[in-house]
Amino acid sequence: MAETTAVSGAGANGAPALVPPPMDESAVAADGGGAAGTATAPLRVNDETFMRSTVQKTVKEVIGAEEYAHARTDGWTNDIVDNLVKNLVALDRSYKYIVTCMIVQKCGAGMRSSTQCFWNPASDIGLSVQVENPSMYVITTVFACKA
């Protein structure tokens, strides 16, 4: 059975730590994970929906409704990737994580990016998530590869 971990307390920079959503009780009982409602939820690193919400939450905690300021983009991108890696490692250390982040000012200019990876589609995941506020786009890419 896979090791499970619950994360509590504060994450990097005092931000709340990310915790996987609870598992459906019937799935716990069917999995032999103990009495319904008593088992810890399995980690969701390879769950695209969970990963997307994790990225969105982290970006919003760092950027919020801040106005675009070029001088601050270095700190914001570093905080986003640092917080994401720390929180993901705390959830599941059996993955190797690669996180990139771009911040682009909303000014009508175009931007294109492409990423490619060779991996095991049964266990690894990669996704890009765009979060925006009135003055900027934040594009974050996360790869989680089973170690």
TrEMBL record:
One of its GO terms (cellular component) is cytoplasmic dynein complex. Residues 1-40 are annotated as: Disordered. GO terms for molecular function: dynein intermediate chain binding. GO terms for biological process: microtubule-based movement. InterPro entries: Tctex-1-like, Tctex-1-like_sf. It comes from the Eukaryota. It holds the Pfam family Tctex-1. This is Dynein light chain Tctex-type 1. It comes from Porphyra umbilicalis (Purple laver).
